[in-house]
Amino acid sequence: MSKQFIKAAGTTAALVSLVFAGILISSRGMQAFEDDDNDSGQSKIQKGFQVAPVPLNLAGKNRALAGLGSYIVNAVSECNGCHSAGPQTEFVRGFNPYFGQPKKLNPATYLGGGRDFGPFPGPTSAVHIITRNLTPDKTGRAIGGASFSEFVEIMRHGTDFDHLHPTCSATVTTNCLPPPFRGDLLQIMPWPAYQDMTDHDLRAIYEYLSSIPCIAGPPSPSPLHHDCT
Ligand code: HEC
Questions:
Q1: How many Cβ atoms sit within 10 Å of the Cβ of residue 191?
Q2: Cα 220 to chain center, whole Å?
Q3: In a mutational test of the pocket of ligand 1, which residue from 82, 163, 198, 210 has the highest number of ligand atoms less than 8 Å from its CB?
């Protein structure tokens, strides 16, 4: 055997073992990812409790679901960016991350709704699309007493149970949305994306929204009002 061949074979063997080791290492890396991300989602639950900006009432609640729900609401889906009263009061004064300050969400507006997206669908429309109050009421259930099945219906199909803006027709001409917009569906709210969440994730969001503090909002009959006591 030539010296050259032995050298080449040795190099190849070294390369093969390197590649093999690489495969081993990266597959163990993947394994770690999967463990971190599996259904029990332990680390997401913990992170969820760390980032919840308000005290949670967990009496009678499923703790793991509420923690995961907080993670989805606060770290992933940015519900509060739309469902607070607007950018001016979304953060505690002096704690606006967009000003380069540390972040602190304002508990007084947290998920209380009221952000006005302005005239919709165009500048001459009388209808303003305004986010709703997602906090519980005195029943202790999310979104002012919504049942879980109502919540699922909203998130999967965009159903507006409050009928705040019907579709315009020959008989309905004020405060209505012109076709092809369907007035019985929530607009701007990203339900076409949320509809693909798992049942488990929707359960988790509902559990979390049922454990945050109630915000009374403007007096009734405002659709944003909730009876907290
Ligand atoms: C891009 C802004 C935006 C984001 C993000 C958003 N929403 Fe909404 N949401 C809205 C708007 C606007 C409405 C009211 C739409 C209308 O009046 O047509 C609404 C309505 C709702 C309603 C109906 C409430 C009722 O009383 O009928 C629920 C429930 C809801 N949102 C939950 C959520 C949850 C949970 C998240 C996060 C997972 C979320 N939203 C994120 C904009 C948003």
A1: 17
A2: 27
A3: 82
Distance CA 10, CA 7 (A): 5
Give residue 5's region: left, alpha or beta (phi > 0; psi -120 to 50): alpha
Is there a contact between 202 and 155 (Cβ–Cβ < 8 Å)?
A: yes
Write down the pLDDT at residue 42: 73
Whole-number Å distance between alpha carbons of 105 and 87: 11
Q: Say whether pLDDT at 193 is over 70.
A: yes
Q: Are 143 and 209 in contact (CB under 8 A)?
A: yes
Can you read off the two tokens belonging to residue 187? 């607009």
- pLDDT above 90 covers a percentage of the chain that reads 82
CA 202 to chain centre: 10
Contacts (Cβ under 8 Å, ≥6 apart) of 134: 79, 83, 111, 112, 113, 142, 143, 209
Judge if the beta carbon of residue 86 lies within 6 A of ligand 1: no
Ligand 1, atom 13: closest residue by C-alpha: 131
Amino acid, res. 80: N
Give 35's pLDDT tier (boundaries 50, 70, 90): very low
User: Ligand 1: which atom is nearest the Cα of residue 188?
Assistant: 12
Residue bearing the CA closest to ligand 1, atom 34 = 79
Ligand 1: distance of its center to the CA of 134 in Å?
8
